[in-house]
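Sequence, please.
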């Protein structure tokens, strides 16, 4: 765990990220006034807020937030949390999350969709992709269920 913590700090240092940096979700607000609240436990009111805060958690390497907000019917869902954390970290450590663009948001009472484009560079390769994500509301909380590549 210490090793993982060090990696996390190193990565954050590399990009000189602080709570006063602009939030990776692209809102234009400082991280401390944006997605940090969700990462600290505030519940997103909409699937769009959840989607942005999840992108932000990938960008800042916060696997626990990704896990907490993934629906149990998602194909990556597993009760083996340590392995799941490692998988997420392998992904986030090898990627630079450059930009998030929201293409469409279809809100609903218990189900919502967000289409987005994520600009991602991995080892000098462009790994950007567009996805239409499906979100489900359960017990007043939004969860990420699944995604379709666009
Ligand atoms: Zn944000």
């Amino acid at each position: 765990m210490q090793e993982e913590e060090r990696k996390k700090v190193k990565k954050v240092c590399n990009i000189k990220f602080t709570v006063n940096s602009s939030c990776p979700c692209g809102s234009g607000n400082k991280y401390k006034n944006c997605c940090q609240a969700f990462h600290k436990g505030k519940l997103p009111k909409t699937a769009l807020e959840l989607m942005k805060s999840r992108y932000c958690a990938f960008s800042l390497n916060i696997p626990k937030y990704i896990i907490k907000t993934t629906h149990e019917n998602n194909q990556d869902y597993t009760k083996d949390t340590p392995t799941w954390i490692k998988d997420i970290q392998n992904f986030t450590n090898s990627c630079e999350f450059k930009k998030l663009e929201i293409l469409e948001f279809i809100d609903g009472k218990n189900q919502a969709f967000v289409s987005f484009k994520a600009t991602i560079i991995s080892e000098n390769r462009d790994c950007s992709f567009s996805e239409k994500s499906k979100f489900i509301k359960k017990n007043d909380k939004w969860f990420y269920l699944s995604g379709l590549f666009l």
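The chain has a mean pLDDT of 92.
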